Amino acid sequence: MRWQITRSEFLAERLNWRSLNSDPPFCGTDGNNNIVPIAFAIVEGETSDTWYFFRSNLRQHVVTRDGVGLISDRHESINAAVERSNGAFHMFCIRHIESNFLRKFKAPYLQKLVVNIGYSRTVREYEVRYQRLRDRDEAYTNWLNQIPREQYALAFDGGYRWGHMTTNLVECINSVLKGARNLPITVLAKATFYRINELFTRKRAEAEVRIDAGHVFSEIVTSKLHTNQLASGNIQVSCFDRQNEVFEVREMPSGLEFAVDLRSLRCDCGEFQVDQIPL
């Protein structure tokens, strides 16, 4: 089944083939945060060559444009395959980094801090949490420094994550394919095709209902825009550069101030860069 990906982010679970059984390795999310399976493959094992084979075909037939974000664990076979190919911005699942950290240092009391560093939406937020970890022991931050921060922190990901930090979403598609993985290959392929077709058909019908009702955006985006509109009654806006669309926004009663650059689509709060939904 071929499906042209329209949102610049997809998730990769490690290949876990046992006797040529299949799991859904690549999934994406649509504009309503629905989980969308993108591609499947049956290979002999989890190696750099099989990942490269899979990603090359994915690039040629499905994800045909640059600027797509790939979230995976830090397995060497995936990293090696990504280095041999191009067209995707590779990032790591924060839960896998958390697990690697715990395995290295046996410090469960710092797990949440490591995860929060990854979830930091602004550089300032990142620096405060990073320093807090460093104050505990420089060995912790020295280990973290071996991972490029754009590959695990929201504040530096360039918007490629669309707010997603883990590969957990991939597991949600398991219910769609329940019972199909242990079938013979021909039957497995047929079962996968029809079950995914049913999912796509249902989601398409749901989208058409919203369009026919006059909605411009997806349900989740519409809800967030409504929430932001209600919250806008508690802010003060000062214009600094009308021509270049630069403003200062002050939240009340907290008094927090943020610079908003509409032309560059940036806000000091970091929310827009992560979610890419107008505030």
Automatic annotation (TrEMBL):
<dbReference type="InterPro" id="IPR018289">
    <property type="entry name" value="MULE_transposase_dom"/>
</dbReference>
<feature type="domain" description="MULE transposase">
    <location>
        <begin position="26"/>
        <end position="100"/>
    </location>
</feature>
<protein>
    <submittedName>
        <fullName>Uncharacterized protein LOC110272936</fullName>
    </submittedName>
</protein>
<dbReference type="Pfam" id="PF10551">
    <property type="entry name" value="MULE"/>
</dbReference>
